[in-house]
Amino acid sequence: MNEPHRPALARLERRLFLRSSLSLGALTLLSGCDLTDGDAVDRVLWALSRWNDRVQAALFNPDRLAPTYPAAAITDPFPFNAFYDESDVPLVEEASYKLELSGLIADKAPWTVAQLRTLPQESQITRHICVEGWSAIGQWRGVRFRTFLERIGADLRARYVGFRCADRYYSSIDMATALHPQTMLALDFRDAPLPPKYGYPMKLRVPTKLGFKNPKHIAAIFVTNDYPGGYWEDQGYNWFSGS
Known about the structure:
Elements: H1 6-15, H2 24-31, H3 38-59, E1 100-103, H4 113-116, E2 121-129, E3 135-144, H5 145-151, E4 160-165, E5 170-174, H6 175-178, E6 184-189, E7 192-193, E8 203-205, E9 218-224
Parallel strand pairs: 1-9
Antiparallel strand pairs: 2-3, 3-6, 4-5, 4-9, 6-7, 6-8
């Protein structure tokens, strides 16, 4: 295979749900183009990725729970993972932290960590599955996301919930996943406040999705019907990314 074609194929591999289901010849037949036409390949890849999102969304069962585990199964140490080194983890001050809300939300008043802790708290021991091929089991405690969305008067008929983070990361999920009973705003890890490397003061815990759909250091949440994208999704990763 010629070297100039490798970037296009790498993008294809990232974007397909069934990685081995589409051959180079099939791509050519479907697109009517060859891999030397970079713009045409990109258009085909994005179309396939959006189709893939629709298929995964149709298959998603909002009542099916991800597996849970006993405390003895917790991975110790739980790995750090981000698009930067651990030495660059942002240090968020709780005293000045306020969670910003916008979009299709009735009550957009910001929330402090102390206010979030007044809501009913739940705990889960679930597996974090990374797109890079590793996984780890962690214990998380926080507010069921559905409870929070109902409390702020979010439009639960909207299509997306988006997140902006203190470390410049951003991501989004579909509303069905946001309302899943295991999706939570995690405030604690192993019965203590989240360490900075795991997302202090708050991260989204979504055991039904791959790890990069679990943003850390959340600074703002918005509800929208307009596709919000995400840090990795805008670079070619599949948006739905169920685990």
